[in-house]
Amino acid sequence: MGTLDLSDNKLTEIPYELADCPKLKEINFKGNCLTDKRLEKMVNGCQTKSILDYLKSGGRGKGKGKGESAEKTENRDKSSRKKKKPLKKDDEESDEMEELNKLVVRVLHVSENPSTVFVKVTPNVKEVRPYIVCCIVEGMNLRAGNALKRFLVAQTKLHDDDCQKRTLATIATHDLHLVKGPLLYDARPSQSLKITPLGRKEIKAADLVRRLQMEADEQRKQKKRQNVSGLHKYLQLLNGKENFPCLVDAEDHVISFPPITNSDKTKIRKTTSQLFLEVTSSTNLQTCKNVMDRLIVRMAELNKFTFENKEQESVSDDETEVTEDQAETVDLTVIKMTSPELIVRQVRVVDAEGNLKVVYPAKTDLNVDAHDVTVIR
């Protein structure tokens, strides 16, 4: 079986000669900005045979299949123009589908919801990790199928790629309903800072780092190599720091300890309907914004995938997949998403005196270079 995967590239056209490859059974051109929008819609949702048949016919009269003369192409164009009226309804439906296939991100400003969560930054973070941007996202369906798992995998990939192994920036995601605002972005001594890390019990930050370091050393001995996995990869980012950065809620609970971990108390679950997103960096503010832009676009893509595939929704609140033994006892229903649209609410970050430092997303943010993303402000 022949497979051709050219997804997520910068292709604008697909050669019609592919239709003459009989051993080609599977193709993937998703993530490319094709000039033929109907073909682009097909590569995102149709079977390989349908796409190859479309290419063989030359698409919308813009090309010709192999062995087809220019005269035949012209005659076919004339014929298609004569049949324009019967196809009008189909064209309208196609245009409507094209609009539905766009990723819509709607921005709600602080003025539309003045009671929203805000973040106050203390001077203590200046020498540690001074930059932070936050926002709230609604409309993300995490209950369906493996939606939550896909989101967590995407976040990990962003950490590895865009964030360069968290050296440029770190992403943290929280369940907004478990976040008690207003929030404080601070830097505190490692011996006094306490957090309940994901999947662990409450612990002092210094003890957590020490324990992770011991685990990393044990990993190296067992695997007989220098590379380590998990949180252990990021310990060197704290070398030489007496104070550690942290995001603290109104009850003085640490909900984030970048670049190491979030708090288990505010972790997202399948039932999470509103997400509080946080990106921090020691590099610059624009780095935070770029990463947040990329994260939101990726969330829009994942939500659209969930919407189109109509995965089943599970009441299980576990991050892991439901096992076969559990499947009979779990109530499954077909999800009823009316739209994959995401709503992004602005969050203000202010200094110790209450002066605005940054609000995200501002007018200059989310100006994404993607033809299938529509941002409504």
From TrEMBL:
Q: Which ranges are annotated Basic and acidic residues under compositional bias?
A: 65-78
> One GO MF term, please?
phenylalanine-tRNA ligase activity
Query: Record's superkingdom?
Result: Eukaryota
Domain B3/B4 tRNA-binding, residue spans: 128-304
SUPFAM superfamilies, sorted: RNI-like
Q: Name one GO biological process term.
A: phenylalanyl-tRNA aminoacylation
Q: Where is this region: Disordered?
A: 57-95
Q: What PANTHER family does the annotation carry? A: LEUCINE-RICH REPEAT-CONTAINING PROTEIN 47, PHENYLALANYL-TRNA SYNTHETASE BETA CHAIN AND LEUCINE-RICH REPEAT-CONTAINING PROTEIN 47
What protein name applies here? Answer: B3/B4 tRNA-binding domain-containing protein
